[in-house]
Write a structure and sequence with these properties.
The chain has one domain (about 30-205): Beta-carbonic Anhydrase, Chain A, CATH 3.40.1050.10. It is of the alpha/beta class. The protein is about 50% helix and about 15% strand. Helix 7 crosses helix 9 (about 145-165). Strand 4 and strand 5 (about 190-200) form a beta hairpin. A 5-stranded mixed beta sheet has the order 2-1-3-4-5. About 30% of the residues are buried. The chain is globular. The protein is built from 11 helices and 5 strands. The protein binds zinc ion.
Length: about 210
């Protein structure tokens, strides 16, 4: 188990290893960052976006929150998005959900007397996704199937939310970047599975969610 002392020891060992492999590694990165990716994922400790994708420092701009939400009114995610798209000029924006997501689970359980406090408010959009796809979800045979599908639907809706932000709309008016992607990580086997890729305009974004 990682404790605080070990955390700092690990950091020192990591920095020494990186410098041994490439003496200019930190010096080069201290000058600028030029990531090609913005990844928006869940805060869950089992979903370390850089680690699971092999991204080195400087290669991935990252935003994480509970259940990988992209709210149109969330200044935090919008500021990250604007900086990534307008200043860093990232070519790809990925929304990464994950099976077994506690946030999505909490949204599914809401209304069953299991209030969790503030996070209930945060998860309102996931509950909306659940309501919107009620028929599709109910048709699935098991609770696990419904849970997994809601995780996927949540990712697709967040990609659509991304597409509708003024930041992405004005970037697309300029050229067909950034490309938006949605993926889901499976904490049981460590694999990232693509749900949708290379959304580069409103037609593709609008086609992601069938009208319910
Ligand atoms: Zn999660």
């Amino acid at each position: 188990m990682l404790d605080l002392t070990r955390l700092f020891e690990n950091n020192r060992a990591w920095a020494e290893r990186m410098t041994r492999d490439d003496p200019a590694f930190f010096l080069e990165r201290s000058r600028a960052q030029t990531p090609h990716f913005l990844a928006i994922g869940c805060s869950d400790s089992r979903v370390p976006l850089e680690l699971l994708s092999g991204a080195a420092p400087g290669e991935m701009f990252v935003h994480r929150n509970v259940a990988n939400q992209v709210f149109p009114a969330d200044l935090n995610v919008l500021s990250v998005l604007e900086y990534a798209v307008e200043v860093l000029r990232v070519r790809h924006v990925l929304v990464v959900g994950h099976y077994g997501c506690g946030g999505v689970q909490a949204a599914m359980d809401a209304g069953q007397g299991q209030g969790l406090g503030l996070v209930d408010n945060w998860l309102g959009d996931v509950r909306d996704v659940q309501r919107r796809h009620r028929d599709e979800l109910r048709a699935l045979p098991t609770v696990d199937d419904r849970f997994n599908r809601l995780v996927e639907l949540n990712v697709l809706h967040q990609v659509v939310n991304l597409a509708r932000t003024p930041v992405v709309q004005s970037a697309w008016a300029r050229d067909a970047t950034p490309l938006l992607h949605g993926a889901v990580f499976d904490v049981r086997d460590g694999l990232l599975r693509s749900l949708v890729t290379a959304v580069d305009g409103n037609d593709k974004a609008d086609a992601l969610i069938p009208l319910a």
